[in-house]
Amino acid sequence: MIHSLFIINEAGDAFMEKHWKTVVSKSICDYFYEAQKKCVNPEDIPPVIATPHHYLINIYRNNLYFVAVLTNEIAPLFVIEFLHRIMDLFENYFGECTEKSVKDNYVIVYELLDEILDSGLPLITETNILKELIKPPNLLRKVAHFVTGDSTNTTLPSKQLSNIPWRPFDVSYRNNEAFFDIVEEIDAIIDQNGTIVMSEIQGYIDCCIKLSGMPDLTLNFVNPRLLDDISFHPCVRLRKWESEHVLSFIPPDGNFRLISYHIATQNTICMPIYVKHHIQYREGSSGRFELTVGPKQTMGKSLENVIIECTMPKSVLNCTLTPSQGKSTFDPIKKILIWNIGTIETKTQNSAHLPTIRGNIILVTGQPIPESNPILNISFQINQLAISGIRVQRVDMNGEIYKPYKGVKYITTVKKGRFQIRT
Amino acid sequence: MAEIESKKGEIYELKAELNSDKRERKKEALKKVIASMTVGKDVSQLFPDVINCMQIDNLELKKLVYLYLMNYAKTQPEMAILAVNTFAKDCNDPSPLIRALAVRTMGCIRVDKITEHLCEPLRKCLKDEDPYVRKTAAVCVAKLYDINQQLVFDQGFLDLLKDLLSDSNPMVVANAVAALSEISEQSPQIQVFDLNGPTVNKLLTALNECSEWGQVFILDTIANYPPKDDKDAQSICERITPRLAHANSAVVLSTVKVLMKFLELIDPNSEFVQNLYRKLAPPLVTLLSTEPEIQYVALRNINLIVQKRSDILKNEMKVFFVKYNDPIYVKLEKLDIMIRLTNSNNIAQVLAELKEYATEVDVDFVRKAVRAIGRCAIKVEPAAERCVNTLIDLIQTKVNYVVQEAIVVIKDIFRKYPNKYESIIAILCENLDSLDEPEARASMIWIVGEYAERIDNADELLEGFLDGFKDENNQVQLQLLTAIVKLFLKKPTETQELVTKVLTLVTQETDNPDLRDRGYIYWRLLSTDPKAAKEVVLAEKPLISEETDLLEPTLLDELICHIGSLASVYHKPPNTFVEGRFIMKKKLPFRTGIHHEYEDITTMQTNQQQQQQVVISSNVGSLIDDFDMLGPMSNTSSTTMNTFEHTQQQTSSAIPNLLDDELSSILGLDSNVGGHQTPMMNTNTSLPINRLTTSTGNDLDDLFGDINLHTGPSSISFSSPNTLVLPKEIWVSAQKGKGLEISGTFARRNNQIVMEMDFTNKALQSMNDFALQLNRNSFGLTPLQPLQILNPLFPNQTIPIQLILNANGPIMKMDPLTNLQIAIKNNIDIFYFNCIVPIHILFVHNGEIDKMTFLQTWQDIPENNEIKYQLQNINNLSIDDLQNKLRLNNIHTITRTIIEQKEMLYQTIKLTNGIFILIELKITPGNRTIAFSLKTKVPDVANLIIQAYELILSSN
């Protein structure tokens, strides 16, 4: 089982440690540092590292490494999932999970770590229950603290062993609201000619539910058959989905991810954006660079926050580019060109008005002409459109008598760095 | 100094605060203590002061004290005792939270005195009315086991823990499973779980309601349950399949493990399996859109799954395409899986991708991509040309490391497709100078040597390499030596000088024994028997297999049992890397059905390394056949001889002797049998073996047996009844048996069942340590004595084996009934295969019954057990011949009458297991069709009997 945990920052300082069994010396981290030294990028450290007596499993997130120490055979995914869960928990408690927030809340962090694992076995991982046992640090707590001098609940969290461990039983709101965000992230590779090499959609339904009592919600889709590969939150009744294709559940309180789904590449998606590119190096240490971006199949919605990022070959010294819209910067050390375009309206279909960037590339003299053209990384967002076409038909609530406010929002976006165009 | 002062001051301050009267200050001080502890500062000096705080009745404070205690109790055992009373009191607290906390904390304190006091409260808590306490107590047993195993046995905690498996609360069940898994992980020799149907059923029920972590433990436990049969396996699969949609990737992968394991038991052609395949793909693909760490573990496991059941992901190629910003460890894994999924349908797409990758920045990845192109060429034959063209394009880029990798893989392509792409050699030669890595140089030298006759300036090229011989890597030196010898054999006239130079160099100026010995062998070969030398050095090389990089099948099967574990990440069985632990070897369940799953795996050689050795060994020792005929050559030979003798004198006298012996043995054989050493060895060794494995009388019986069959009916047959023996068929092909080919048949000799096999070694190494085992089967066939092969089986040698079987072993009904599952082991591997025992082998000689009994039995068997059939008398045998022929095979004719001008034969058969079969044959003279009807109490065998009749009647 998970024997110990070290939290290490990018500088290689293990500033937090927790041992669930016997104490493992901090020197075990040396094996991790060794692996770290071999890697160019911080995210390239292999997740599983074997040492003579232990195994180290690490995750890298928010510029922090969480390194778990194991002594025996255990499913690595179990550990990795668990480490991510710890990070989620810290984010939930402290608003963010950074070195500072952990250091500011040492005692709570320690108490939490002690509560979620017992002798290396998961004990309580549901945030709702943990929050009843260990109060998060907030202003209210401080006030209560002064009044009563005590902040810990001495009673057993009531619902912790019921069939719905994810929901406290005494939730009460003045304004009852339920919001559903359907977020779809496009993951795609497009080749030189504009052909889609691979594309897939990773979708989520993130909810913010503030409903009193024990509401029982049902979500109907117009086209549920689009979803065939789904991961459900434990609250969703699987049978109901299988038989009727509706999502039926008693929701946790607050923010949570109801389902995540994956729409495969077989039925290629319509890309909402296209890029025309013309990049050419010439003998004599220079080159031409020109990009034009335009919307495509966006159902009349405009593309927002469009950013194109491009890592130039090492032999590029500098670029002098002028965009027709937005701002562009080039970092000559990291060789990264960023063109922040902003919003592209669908009305500007006329190619003359499409955002364009053009200019010259200056190569380092004496260096050979680069072999290949750089890859473009695009990110954008489209509001009120789910690119897969999935739509919620209706949301119903049973079990309570009040009338809640319900809202569904659609967003199509790109996971960071996952939309690539080869040039 | 100042630092120590300030530290002391800090501790002192905390001490004062801890002893303060104000609860608030105490708490703040405690928090500071915990904070210091968290960052690894030593605050153990404060132990007595912290213990004092325990008395206060405040949960938050109590928890802080407990946190401290867990960390430092070990260093201060004497002081820790002081806390025992408080623990005892808390274990009886009305609040379940406090009861649980107390027992949990006590379990974490590894101090003997405390552990002693833990037993009673723990026993109580295991039976506590509150499930929260019970689930905490369950984990506590595992902790106690970690501290003191004996105590757990003595106090009967293990049984109490097992009882919790039937608890009404799923969380308690899950924790009990987790605790038991932990214990069995520590002591695999103890049977911790009694996994039986009802227990598994309870676990499956708990699975639906417990936490995600509990689900992982339960699924991992279920994976160890051996299902009773395919129905059992199928129903468990059905119940756990919904877990594939779980958001937690660990749950998903554990589910996949159980499914992959139980799939073994289910008919692969059934609709159920096809459906399951469809359900398995999406969750695996989904794992690839998660965090990179999860992707990595998922990819390592997908790699195993693809090797075992490639159908599952055959349509998902695109998800494995690499993004340039994937972490390197994800990139490399994706690439590997891409190659495994490559086939002629998607090769175009894959090649385009690989070419794209080969222009990336990351050198390691680019190298792997180039290698991957080579693997594609070897794997997908129709696309080989395109792959070669792609490689040529890449070589034209002149990027140094790309060129080197390309040359290494082109060598492999030449090995796979000889005489097809040699036109590109010229392009390769252009890049000779840029090669600086040993592997690339060695590959290039191999190519030059292998195709020396087509490269005009081969001698110049090789000579160029020879100049810096001493500075070369060992691999390159060996390759260069062989290449020059090859060149010499192909172009003897121009290259004498070169070969002498290299031989002198390796025999006199090198310290490497491998190199020196190889040099001597070549030298001796060239000088004594040039013909043999040519046959050996220029021998046709075995083609390299397309799947050299597949895992070895038994290892793969073992790893499939460990999907999701560290073993699956390392692709090594756990016992090879989990330190100091005895691990039960896990095996995939064995399906009692028709053909087994090993069919798709064709591994001749398991890795590149081995191939390299193969090449070398086939090159060892070698010469020219037209050596004598060429005038100038005799010159060379004498020079060589002289030099050789010269060297012999120079080196110590022991070496030449050794060499002499070795060489003469190889050459002796070669000269006798013209390069094929094996037939002779075969005859030498096989005879004694034959005698050993067969009982003495059997050799004679063999002869008679054959005579009987050929001469047909009458006379001798009764004295030594031998039944029809089918020709041997191949049971294990050399491909599946890693070079061991087994063909066999069954015979009945001297009223004994004999399994007759030929073992042929088609590999390049000798085999030994043979053993054979039969799985339980319908007729309880087991070997009378173990398989005995005393001498090793040499390459190309065949030995006949006769194994007498008896029929009183354990019985298990097979489908078909006569199916026999055999496992044969040798020093290389274990091979499993199925064969069919012809049923007539199981007819016993004393199956005759008298007429009355026959009549009685015929009437006793119900009418609907009668099976009718039209037999064809193909050979148009007379009734006497027919009768005799059947008699030979222990089909006894009880009586023969004529009814309505039709000959009626009444016959009986008795099987080894005592089952009687009654048969009536109605023969119309002049008509070849025989009306056959059969009655038996066990109608399952009827069809087999009909087949036996047809077989016997059609035999000559």
Provide a descriptive summary of the structure in words.
The complex is a heterodimer of chains A (about 425) and B (about 950). By secondary structure, chain A is of the alpha+beta class. Chain A has three domains: about 1-140, Beta-Lactamase (2-Layer Sandwich); about 175-265 and about 395-415, Mu homology domain, subdomain B (Immunoglobulin-like), CATH 2.60.40.1170; about 275-385, Immunoglobulin-like (Sandwich). Chain A has helices at about 30-40, 75-95, 100-105, 105-115, 125-135, 140-150, 240-245; strands spanning about 1-10, 15-20, 50, 55-60, 65-70, 115-120, 120, 175-190, 195-210, 215-220, 230, 245-250, 255-265, 275-280, 285-295, 305-310, 315-325, 325-330, 335-345, 355-365, 375-385, 390-400, 405-420. In chain A, strands 11-13-9-8-23-21-16-19-18 form a nine-stranded mixed β-sheet, with no helix packed on it. A five-stranded antiparallel β-sheet of chain A has the order 2-1-5-4-3. In chain A, a hairpin with a 5-residue loop joins strand 8 and strand 9 (about 195-210). Chain A is flat and about 70 Å long. Residues about 145-160 of chain A have low confidence and may be disordered. Chain B has about 950 residues and is of the alpha+beta class. Among the domains of chain B are: about 340-430; about 435-545; about 730-840, Immunoglobulin-like (Sandwich), CATH 2.60.40.1150; about 850-955, TATA-Binding Protein, CATH 3.30.310. Chain B is flat, with a radius of gyration of 38 Å. At the A-B interface, strand 2, strand 4, helix 2, helix 4 and strand 7 of A face helix 2, helix 4, helix 7, helix 9 and helix 12 of B.
